[in-house]
């Protein structure tokens, strides 16, 4: 139901993120059977500003698409400009502002099979 993905840079742990498979509730949002949520992503401080987050998100979307999931969702706090920028660069599209936990968050989605420009650069 849930798995962890990690990114290494020159043999060192650079970042990680979790994927939870639907069906489930994500805040007040219903995630379907063939959909998933990417969450709890982190980039190790010394690896920030190197594209680790965007690479991680793009790779997770690719993996979920290969596993025949139709959509991947992700949320980020509305004030976290760095995360929001990375989410957009990874090809996610904005859905709505909503409450996820204690903060107002921005909810995004990515359709399976729709290639990310970022992944094409890294392939």
UniProtKB/TrEMBL annotation:
<dbReference type="GO" id="GO:0016747">
    <property type="term" value="F:acyltransferase activity, transferring groups other than amino-acyl groups"/>
</dbReference>
<feature type="domain" description="N-acetyltransferase">
    <location>
        <begin position="1"/>
        <end position="114"/>
    </location>
</feature>
<dbReference type="InterPro" id="IPR000182">
    <property type="entry name" value="GNAT_dom"/>
</dbReference>
<protein>
    <recommendedName>
        <fullName>N-acetyltransferase domain-containing protein</fullName>
    </recommendedName>
</protein>
<dbReference type="Pfam" id="PF00583">
    <property type="entry name" value="Acetyltransf_1"/>
</dbReference>
<dbReference type="InterPro" id="IPR016181">
    <property type="entry name" value="Acyl_CoA_acyltransferase"/>
</dbReference>
